[in-house]
């Protein structure tokens, strides 16, 4: 039976001229025929969801480790929340929702076990071998380390999805090729030599909304998780006038509301205020910049999807609150020290004896590898671990494993 593609609903929402058009994508490193039932960006999103890396996010730390309770966010639930916010922003701004969602879904693939603690420990171990960067690791996963397809390594995402992955926080280098804010991670440079990702320009607006959706999501859910854990109290939220105002609004309307509902009413108002702020500011920036294409967005010289100055200050105050009461809390710092020990000691063990990685395919021919190549293989293996697997493996190799609780 022949499929009538015109009846499938493609293009139901008229995209803005500055949106990324899936039908004029710069394509994939390995050319593939188009799907009859999905746009290229829809296929990207679907491929991302079906990866092993996506499933592993279920058991990777956001802030609180798995033993703390079932209701705290993991990297997976955080990622889903970011994707929801990114899609809402994309719809309001008439962008390609599938590309925005795909960039949001893939943005944390490269995170190590134990969140930023694991990344810091692995970066320190890799200092003599090019360092470790979770964005660069995400790129390695989707272009090399996922092995699902017969004809290529990785999942062969479109240029736009890969560009959004590596540049969602802005350009990585100057027009002369010098790194912005430090050297560009080598894995990104290596891939861009094969499939030029325009490292000196901004990313598409879809990638920009995915990036700011990340800020909105974790600012909100880390407060929610902080209140649940007891590290935050409603009195502490008074330190941020914006949050104090939301609490007064909810209390005035619902004076006898139970704590769980009270928290949720605050959080939903916080998300709404931040999302609406981004939409309004981005619309104003677009009216000023007048981009006539997605490439005009890339070449505009600035990020167009941003907070207003007032909301940016609120964002700063919320981050200060979270760092002061949660991220740097003595209990959390003790757990972080134990997690860093686990990652560091596993690296040393695997580097000294790669056979400890068992049947891992990267151990083949290890004798022929340089020290840098061996270190990168170990980093790939470690970064792919979940919290639970890293802790379990450490217990098998060492007599004393830190208690992460």
From TrEMBL:
Which Pfam family, any one, appears in the UniProt record?
A: HD
Entries under InterPro entries matching the protein: dGTPase (IPR006261), dGTPase-like (IPR050135), dNTPase_2 (IPR023023), HD/PDEase_dom (IPR003607), HD_domain (IPR006674), PHydrolase_assoc_dom (IPR026875)
Domain HD residue range list: 75-219
Q: Which UniProt keywords apply?
A: Hydrolase
Does the record bear Lipid biosynthesis in its keywords?
no
Which BP terms in the Gene Ontology apply to this protein? dGTP catabolic process
Entry's Gene Ontology molecular function annotations = dGTPase activity
Keyword Signal found: no
Record's family?
Belongs to the dGTPase family. Type 2 subfamily.
Q: What is this protein called?
A: Deoxyguanosinetriphosphate triphosphohydrolase-like protein
Which species does this protein come from? Martelella lutilitoris
């Amino acid at each position: 039976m022949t499929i009538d593609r015109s009846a499938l609903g493609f293009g139901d929402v008229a995209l803005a001229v500055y949106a990324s058009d899936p039908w004029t994508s710069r394509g994939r490193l390995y050319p593939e025929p188009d799907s009859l039932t999905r746009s290229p960006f829809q296929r990207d999103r679907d491929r991302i969801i079906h990866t092993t890396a996506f499933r592993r996010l279920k058991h990777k730390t956001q802030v609180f480790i798995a033993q703390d309770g079932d209701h705290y966010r993991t990297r997976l639930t955080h990622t889903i929340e970011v994707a929801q916010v990114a899609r809402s922003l994309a719809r309001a701004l008439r962008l390609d929702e599938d590309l925005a969602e795909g960039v949001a879904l893939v943005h944390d693939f490269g995170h190590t076990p134990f969140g930023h603690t694991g990344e810091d420990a692995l970066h320190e171990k890799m200092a003599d071998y090019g360092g470790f960067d979770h964005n660069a690791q995400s790129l390695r996963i989707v272009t090399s380390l996922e092995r699902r397809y017969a004809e290529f390594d990785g999942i062969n995402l479109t240029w736009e999805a890969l560009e959004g992955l590596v540049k969602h926080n802005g350009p990585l280098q100057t027009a002369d090729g010098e790194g912005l804010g430090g050297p560009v991670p080598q894995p990104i440079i290596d891939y861009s030599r094969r499939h030029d990702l325009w490292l000196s320009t901004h990313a598409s607006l879809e990638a920009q909304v995915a990036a700011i959706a990340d800020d909105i999501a974790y600012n909100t859910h880390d407060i929610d998780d902080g209140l649940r854990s007891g590290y935050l109290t409603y009195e502490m939220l008074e330190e941020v006038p914006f949050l104090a105002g939301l609490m007064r609004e909810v209390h005035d309307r619902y004076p006898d509301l139970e704590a769980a509902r009270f928290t949720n009413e605050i959080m939903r108002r916080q998300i709404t205020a931040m999302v609406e702020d981004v939409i309004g500011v981005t619309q104003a920036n677009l009216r000023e910049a007048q981009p006539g294409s997605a490439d005009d967005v890339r070449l505009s010289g600035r990020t167009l999807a941003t907070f207003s100055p007032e909301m940016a200050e609120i964002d700063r105050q919320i981050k200060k609150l979270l760092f002061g009461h949660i991220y740097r809390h003595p209990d959390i710092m003790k757990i972080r020290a134990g997690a860093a020990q686990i990652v560091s000691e596993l690296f040393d063990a695997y580097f000294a004896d790669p056979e400890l990685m068992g049947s891992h395919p990267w151990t083949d021919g290890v004798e022929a590898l340089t020290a840098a190549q061996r270190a990168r293989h170990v980093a790939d293996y470690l970064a792919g671990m979940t919290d639970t697997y890293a802790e379990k493996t450490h217990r098998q190799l060492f007599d004393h494993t830190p208690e992460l609780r």
